[in-house]
Amino acid sequence: MKRRLLLFISLWALLLVLMIIHKIVFMTVEDTYTWSDFAALWPVIVNGFSMDLSMSAYLMAPVLLWLIASVWTAGKWMRRTLNIYLWFIAAVFSAVAVTDAILYPYWHFRLDATPVFYFTTSPGAAMASLQWWWEAAAVILVIALSWGLHWLMKQCAEVFMPLPQAAKTGKRVVATAILLVIGALMIIPIRGGVTVSTMSPGRAYFSSDMRLNHAAVNPMFSFIHSLMHIDRLDRQFKYFDSEEAHRTVARMMDARSDTNPDSGRTVKLSVSRPDVYIIILESFSAHLMPSLGGENIATRLDSIGRRGVLFTNFYAESFRTDRALPTILSGYPALPTTSVLRYPNKFGSLPGLASELKKNGYTTNYYYGGDINFTNLKAYLVSTGFDNIVCDTDFPVSRRLSKWGAHDEDVYARALNDIHEGKPALRVIQTSSSHEPFDVPYRSHHTDKRANAFAYADSCLGAFITGLHRTGRWDRSLIAIVPDHWGAYPKDLTDHKARHHVPLVLTGGALEGTPARITAPGSQSAIVPTLLRLMGMDTSAFLYPTDLLNPAAPHHAWLTEPEWAELIKDDGTTTTINVTGNTQSGPHTKQTKAFIQTIYEDLDRR
Questions:
Q1: d(CA 156, CA 88)
Q2: I need a labelling partner for 387 at 20 to 30 A (CA). Which of 380, 449, 505, 580 fits?
Q3: 286: how many CB neighbours lie within 10 A of its CB?
Q4: How far apart, in whole angstroms, are the C-alpha atoms of residue 62 and residue 564?
């Protein structure tokens, strides 16, 4: 019995040591950490230890069952069984560690279930951000690390092999009972203690510096926790009674003028049913535009914005394209912990710009140079009213050899080629050339590869606007230009509010009252209701139909990432809540919590 207990304790201790070493290695290899951050290494280890203990207990539970079986049976097959499980631990540990290290510079949060969603819908698109040598290096590293970790654990187990067999049944019963008691006690570290609250990633948070909190989080636990909670929408953020939450949000959304909701509107349309264009720019940010205080990179967009309607205090609501598209096209506020596109069974109940315009005689078209099945995108588009969908397979093979399929210039050219007289049309153009790895067929004066890619995407946008003038439909055009999610320029932007600050530009010959600058706060879920109100159409199908062009309406911006949600009000205040813990800051905590609760409850009901 003693050797079994020593084997169990030794393997568990080894796993804990490996998890602590992983934190040190993570902080060493990630560029976001400096050597001065290692002064906080001890708090990182201490505050993350309970999560490490929980995750290692999960991994040791099958070993305990194996030890119970070894009391009653023996043979080479038993050792082989343990060896196979040790290989499993080593492989999972290695795959999570490497994947987490690769994705963290892009996402700025620890690994969750998002990659599974991406890989199951389109493995090629999921890996498109990486160069092929990074993919090869990652595979080699996972294999090498798996072998090394397995060797360590096997050597640790071999010290206590072979395990002695008790001759008497009574001793076997006692040994089994002791091991079962240990198994029962393991529930305590697994759930994170004996209190009501159970283990969650927020348990590791201890600092106002989010980087240090991230270093403390165990990525294996974060991944499993995300998988386990993905569908419990109505129970994730239950801050208040449902009726109270809805009353709070209703008060927040009430217009200040009930008698004339359009009072003071200066931007109007010269035609009642214009052609509508939504141009979704991959990863653009306000920091690319001089008129928004940024660099002189997106010069064409900057010029378009100066002549049209430029929203100067506008924000992206999320951080990935799959989370942004329902926000932009369905006016559905972003959720921090999940993507609406994970739930195909709910697509049919979502409102959408395409479905609303179809009711008013519009044709509906979507243009994207990449894999349209990635993250259930095609199912979403079809369900919300798009009839004509152009994607990578509609371009010659020679024109879609980039990581993300066809480049922007070809996608814009296809959209221009489809413009003709007839019914009013909705055309949504989703770009991709300014996505990592930023490989584009273009050389600007910018030596930075990232800046060059954005300059290319900007030039393609400018060429499209010029081409649209030549079609003869410019005077009937209403165009909204907006990025899909937080900006990827500059590279290491850490302030989350600045990172989510993006441009929104309305332009087109059908607009009257331009140029105009709108300084009220806004975010992407207000785009569709604003366009529909501008055209005099009904917006009652939308969850919270804010009109960005109506000065009599209350305005707000909504920002989310997997760990927090933020509400920026038109009184200039900002309220932030940590959705993985219990911290919050700002004057409108109740409104912010009620807002996120009502969104999750609404999606759960659909």
A1: 16
A2: 505
A3: 26
A4: 35
